[in-house]
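Raw record, unedited: Helix-turn-helix domain-containing protein
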Amino acid sequence: MTSAAHIIAALGGTSAVARELDVPASTVSSWKSGGSIPRWRMAGITSLAKSLGVDLDVVGATDNAPASAASSRKSGDLTAAQQSEAA
């Protein structure tokens, strides 16, 4: 699963994120399948995460991922390949 998919799942899934951000579910689904969330949407994602008590710094992180890889996910605009490279 990509980091975008992990984030969306942690926030309640495609429908929940779409509803909270007032965007079509197909938009959120495209973020999942594309492997990234547009940077300009991250303010809404971050706000939603805070309201749900979700720490985006640890979503999708693995036990052996360096801290720099986990913090780079915060931008939400990296592809899965770029995130793997960072790890």
